[in-house]
Specification:
Structural class: alpha+beta
CATH class: Alpha Beta
Number of helices: 5
Shape: globular
Distance between the termini: 31 Å
Number of strands: 8
Strand order of the largest sheet: 1-2-3-4-5-6-8-7
Mean pLDDT: 91
CATH architecture: 3-Layer(aba) Sandwich
CATH superfamily: Gcn5-related N-acetyltransferase (GNAT)
Largest sheet: 8 strands, mixed
Strand content: 25-35%
Low-confidence stretches: none
């Protein structure tokens, strides 16, 4: 675990920025979770791809890469305090009159079904609408990704539309549903 201070804490999770020191744990969790993530997501699973991924998040002011970490006492948690349960990135941050960001996220298999990502997403939303000063968050989700859709629904996002051929993932342009939440909806 990194020595980085948490940006926000809940009863069972906390969020903090990515660091280069997280490479070993993050990539091990990504490898363990390969079946969970496919075909929706391809997080970095080796040190070189992690270094590039984390470096882009750390060094880009239009992105905020956040790790969802377990806190001691998380129900059913065999993990040590601070273990990475998942990640939620706010990408394409635009300020000015728009004040919006687009979410990208994934949970790790050891944390599934325990509500940790739901709690973590709530912390990220509060952080985005508070200290980051955003007004709107969007999540673009492939229609068949029921788990991801359920996560944003629980958080209060609304379905706003459908975007054909929206993102290039795993060798093809994929359709996505557009989900969003604004500060007024919280």
């Amino acid at each position: 675990m990194s020595d980085t201070t948490y940006l926000a804490e809940g009863p069972r999770t906390a969020i903090r920025p990515f660091t280069h020191a997280d490479a070993d744990e993050f990539t091990a969790r990504a490898r363990e979770s390969r079946e969970l993530h496919r075909p929706w997501l391809f997080p970095p699973a080796d040190p070189d791809t992690y270094a590039a991924y984390a470096g882009a998040l750390i060094g880009d002011p239009t992105r905020s890469g956040l790790l969802v970490c377990e806190r001691h006492g998380a129900a059913g948690s065999p993990a040590a305090d601070g273990a990475i349960a998942g990640f939620i990135n706010i990408n394409n941050i635009v300020m000015g009159g728009f004040r919006c960001g687009a979410l990208g996220y994934g949970g790790f298999v050891h944390a599934t079904g325990r509500g940790l990502m739901s709690e973590g997403l709530g912390l990220v939303i509060d952080y985005a609408f508070g200290p980051l000063g955003l007004h709107r968050l969007e999540a673009n989700i492939q229609p068949g990704n029921a788990g991801s859709i359920a996560l944003v629904r629980r958080a209060g996002f609304r379905l706003e539309g459908f975007s054909p051929d929206f993102l290039f993932i795993d060798g093809a342009w994929r359709d996505h549903e557009r989900w969003a939440i604004t500060a007024q909806m919280r």
